[in-house]
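Troubleshooting: if your tokenizer reports a length mismatch, compare your output against this known-good record of 337 residues.
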Amino acid sequence: MGSRRSHVAMCEASPSTFSVDGNVNYQSETEDERFQRTLDHHRSQIAKYRSNWEYKPPSDSDDASSSSVSTSTTVPSRSWPDDIPANNDLSFFLEDLKYCAKSPNFRSDKDYCNKLSFRVAAALLTQFDDDNQTTGFEMLRNLAEKGYPDAMAYYGMCLNEGRANTDPNSTNAVVWFRRCADMYEHPQAMYELGVAFYTGEGVVEDEVEAVKWFMMAAEKNHPAACYMLGDCLLDGEGVEVDRGAALDWLVTATDLGHRGARSRVMAVLEKKDGEDYGRFTDGSRQTLVEHTLLSSNKDGRIVKRIATLRKEIGGGVRNPTELARRQTIVGNSRKES
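Known-good structure output:
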């Protein structure tokens, strides 16, 4: 699945099967065996995770919202765009933009003015007044049309959301996401394409296509894509259920600064046998039991749960319950801080 998982895929847990030459043979493992091996490996690392992630486990009297439960981390959050100037610095950036072509930075980096323009446009789009938002939107569109990759991805996001008092246009947004992904293999554009196929916004719902784009973005260390890929693997959305791989990708998302993933990982690793979590599988309250009641075929492979945004296969009215569920998962993936 890529370099981020290589250290986990060959973890040091005891294998369940061996080939005739004595080497480890993971190919014949069932999903349950693979998950248990992966779970054992990550549980052996729990002390390191707590230290690296600054995780303070809750006491028996704490709940998920308790102030004694750690919410900080030494790993910075990576929401995107992640380099928007602060409001009190915006005037300086605007001034620098006037003379960027004469700057020594421009002589050493021909993309300097585009980078500066993108940061200014992103900052203007966060302002409350309509004029600044409109100016930022136009700057972003001009940069996107010039082929600046960050602007292409972010312009698609703004089109999708209807920023700067424009009407949302998910169809055009997907055009920009695909163009940016195809031209530059841009991780954010790949993630946004995955979201579009996952929710059926701007394109026809296609879970398999969604997983493909999440995978491509995750392999480029996009934290939200790692989170979404883990969730799809956990729930069998567009891919065969693989709880071991799901846990690997949620750990990767946590290493990249995704604190929602951290909560899910630690809830799984600290899960107490025999404890009743009600409708949920563990203390993170992220996965419903009803979405894990899947059966195995004779090869030990998990049969995919059939969940579609359409009430009729191949068409029909969109299922509002399933759509709301998926939008909630996407929203959680975007909440990296």
